[in-house]
What we know:
single chain, alpha+beta, Immunoglobulin-like, six-stranded antiparallel beta sheet, five-stranded mixed beta sheet, 8 helices, 16% helix, 37% strand
Amino acid sequence: xxxxxxxxxxxxxxxxxxxxxxxxxxxxxxxxxxxxxxxxxxxxxxxxxxxxxxxxxxxxxxxxxxxxxxxxxxxxxxxxxxxxxxxxxxxxxxxxxxxxxxxxxxxxxxxxxxxxxxxxxxxxxxxxxxxxxxxxxxxxxxxxxxxxxxxxxxxxxxxxxxxxxxxxxxxxxxxxxxxxxxxxxxxxxxxxxxxxxxxxxxxxxxxxxxxxxxxxxxxxxxxxxxxxxxxxxxxxxxxxxxxxxxxxxxxxxxxxxxxxxxxxxxxxxxxxxxxxxxxxxxxxxxxxxxxxxxxxxxxxxxxxxxxxxxxxxxxxxxxxxxxxxxxxxxxxxxxxxxxxxxxxxxxxxxxxxxxxxxxxxxxxxxxxxxxxxxxxxxxxxxxxxxxxxxxxxxxxxxxxxxxxxxxxxxxxxxxxxxxxxxxxxxxxxxxxxxxxxxxxxxxxxxxxxxxxxxxxxxxxxxxxxxxxxxxxxxxxxxxxxxxxx
Length: 485
């Protein structure tokens, strides 16, 4: 999921296309490892697109960009790690020749725990606003049982000539800082470490490491990607492996690594979620489910065409390929098969699941349609269909602050709605969405959310107040958002 306002793409997020990745200011990901002394550490990777930064004259007639980096890790509101430093881009001869990327890697030790990792990036030579990333990170490497590091995707590996932050075991391993794998990539290279296997397997005895890819939505293992290897037990084991993904269709997947003993019992597992784009590889006929006599055969083709479009908010990348690229030319039988398979993948009772969703579609069409934009195409409709009905809605048409702010007066807000969710699957509790009617036209757009993968704007309340507030000033709408009502 991308951060459109911040122009940053998270590596844990899905749904990122090539063009979007190219236009992003930076790509971010992280890994956690455990050193030989049993001290855990975090590595952060930020790949910057140079053309977003201002290059100024530097030494020897060169030009260079400078980015001020601030990295803060907090736990229970206490700062555990903090660092501020200036990152220099590679020096170039001509500031116009800036169509390249450069990588920043930071490594710091940190105890086991759950942290909020905050990274703020500022172009020191430009006048753009700082960009902020907030990411929850879990570090857990117990001393009394086996564990695995992050599965780190590797863009390239070559013998080390001079030690650097990306050097491991005699090789320079450049991290692949994205969760989007385009069709041009046929091999998925990854690195990971295994710790304390001797707590389960006697030292110098062997165990099996198994790597494969599974469909994220269903957990179905794709056996053509399965790869196993016998490994000798020792306290720390480094593994570099490769899977062939040339025949992996577009979709959302998990790279899975399992540790298995001689009885084929799993005693360790790690996953990495990624999105694959490979439109030239199509579904085989085996992927089509028998749908005759089911509820889909009773849907009129015109209605079916519309209903397929409304699946967009919850569709996987593979399903979106069909919706946008194939549905218009597909036969009725192909559309019926797709529709039935879509709901069967989500429930053992696909008919009931569809009927529940259809009521939501009818609701958003009734309440959020405006002009030629149907309800499911609106921001509020998309959020409603993706996450379900909100727990509570705060609707403010003409809110004026009760406080009189110094040098500003009362704050007059644009019309807005706040939607609050007690729980969203796969996210932390108590998530919220702010929609605003920027032009007082009745069209509400998503302005800000703290939900995983959604738009985040640090200065959302300033925009909501029509720029009355200063950038870092919080007023009543900000308080409403934080307290959840």
